């Protein structure tokens, strides 16, 4: 059963921007803290950004000042605006609940060329 569907990834040059979207199905979406994660090849999945039910956000140091997480509870969507992209941002990006993760979706590939 598909619960999380990420989209919006692609290939961009360093310094470029992408906006990722995550559609969450079912459950009481609005009460959960949500997050974006990423996983580069042969690396562990890492937490990129979180957003609380009230809109408070946190970011990994590596993306702070460049990425912005947001949510639309009515649409049950989470977004990640990524600006000033760097090659080291290359990874598969996933959304999920910050706590009590759902099964992982397929993610969306972000590739940043130098």
Q: What does this protein look like?
A:
- This protein is mostly beta strands.
- It is built from no helices and 10 strands.
- The strands form 2 sheets. It has a 6-stranded mixed sheet with strand order 2-10-9-4-5-6, with no helix packed on it. The chain has a 4-stranded antiparallel sheet with strand order 1-3-8-7, with no helix packed on it.
- A hairpin with a 6-residue loop joins strand 4 and strand 5.
- The protein is globular, with a radius of gyration of 13 Å.
- The model has no long low-confidence stretch (mean pLDDT 95).
> Termini distance?
37 Å
Please provide the count of β strands. 10
Strand order of the largest sheet: 2-10-9-4-5-6
Structural class: mainly beta
Shape: globular
Please bin the fraction of helical residues.
Answer: under 10%
Instruction: Outline the biggest β-sheet.
Output: 6 strands, mixed
| Poorly predicted runs of 5 or more residues | none
Mean pLDDT: 95
Main features:
mainly beta, 114 residues, six-stranded mixed β-sheet, four-stranded antiparallel β-sheet, 0% helix
Topology:
Blueprint (H helix, E strand, L loop, with lengths): L3 E4 L2 E4 L4 E7 L9 E6 L6 E6 L5 E3 L7 E6 L4 E6 L8 E7 L10 E6 L1
């Amino acid at each position: 059963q598909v619960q999380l569907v990420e989209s919006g990834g692609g290939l961009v040059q360093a310094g470029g921007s992408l906006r990722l979207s995550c559609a969450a199905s079912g459950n009481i979406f609005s009460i959960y803290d949500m997050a974006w994660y990423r996983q580069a090849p042969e690396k562990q999945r890492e937490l990129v950004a979180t957003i609380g039910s009230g809109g408070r956000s946190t970011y990994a140091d590596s993306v702070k000042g460049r990425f912005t997480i947001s949510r639309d509870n009515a649409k049950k969507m989470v977004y990640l605006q990524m600006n000033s992209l760097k090659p080291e941002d290359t990874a598969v990006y996933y959304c999920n609940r910050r706590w009590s993760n759902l099964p992982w979706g397929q993610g969306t590939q972000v590739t940043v060329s130098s």
